Amino acid sequence: MPPGQTSDVPRGGNGECTQAEAQRGEIVLVIVGERINTSRKRVNEAVEKREAAYIQEDVKSQLEAGADLIDINAGSRLNSEVDDLAWLIDIVQSTVPEVRLCIDSPNPGSIRSVLHVVERPPMLNSTTAEKDRFEAMSEIIQSTDCDIVALCIDDKGIPKNAEQALDTAARLVSDLESLGVKRERIYIDPVIQAVSTNTNAALIALEAIEGIRRKLPGANVICGLSNVSFGLPKRHLVNRAFLALAMRAGLSAAIVDPLDKKLMGTLRATTLLLGQDRWCQDYIRAFRKGWLEA
Length: 294
Fold this sequence. Notes:
This protein is α/β, with parallel strands linked by helices. The protein has a single domain (about 25-285), classed as TIM Barrel (Alpha-Beta Barrel). Helix content is about 45%, strand content about 15%. It has helices at about 20-25, 40-50, 50-65, 80-95, 110-115, 130-145, 160-180, 200-215, 235-250, 260-275, 280-290, and strands at about 30-35, 70-75, 100-105, 125-130, 145-150, 185-190, 220-225, 255. An eight-stranded parallel barrel has the order 1-2-3-4-5-6-7-8, surrounded by five helices. Helix 6 (about 130-145) links the parallel strand 4 (about 125-130) and strand 5 (about 145-150). Helix 3 (about 50-65) packs across helix 4 (about 80-95).
C-alpha cells in the first residue's frame, strides 16, 4: 500500500477526512517518521560525513513501513543547522521526489532559510502561543502553503492541566486562522509530559486530545509519542499502550519511528478495532508483507 493511503477509508473530495467523519472518529493516523534527526548518533555521523546512502536507505525504509511525512531535524548541530537541513532536504527529495517533509527546528530563522528548497507543501514544526515565537513564525507561515504544528505553550509555560491546554489550543487556532491558515492544516500538540514525573500526565494528555477534537472541530491533534515514557524502563511498552488510548481519544497524527514493528502493529490493530480499516484490508496486507510483530 503506498504511503499515506488507506483501505477504503471514506475521504472528502480533497483527500482529507470530512468533518462529519472526524467527529465520528473515522480518521486514519498520519505518521510522521522521526528518524532523520541529528540527535541520533548514526544520523549525526551520516550528516557530518555527508553519507547520502545511509539517509536515502533510512527514508525509503520509513516510507515503506507506513510513514506519510519524513521529519527532518538538525537542531542538535547549532553551528551548521541551516546547511545540514538544506543538504538533508536535497538528499531526501532526490531519493523520493513525491515525499512530503516536516521541517523541524526550534529556530524560525533556520526554517525560513531552507523553505526555498522544499519542493512540496511541508509541515512546519513548530510554533507556540509564546508572543515572540509566534510573531517570528507568522511571516514564514504566511509565505508558504504549509501544515503547521502548534504547541500548547504560551508565555506562562507548559499547561498544567487539560483546561489550560485547551485554552491555549483555542488561541492558537484563532491566531493561525487569522493568518489565513485553514483549520484542517493546523496540528495542535498538547505537549505530552512524562508519566515518570507526573503519574497523571497521560490522563491529562488524553483529556486534552478529546477536548481539542470536540471543541475545535476540523483541527488536528499531533504528538511526539515517546515523551510519555521518558525515564521509564521498557519504554516501547508504554508507548504502544498510550498510542492505542490516544487514537481512541482522537489523535490525528503522531511523530514516531515507523520501523518499530511492534508500535506499527499496535497502530494497525487499533485502526482495525476502531472501525477505520474496512474489511481488515490494511491489517491483512501488513501481515502478508511481514510488517506485523506481536
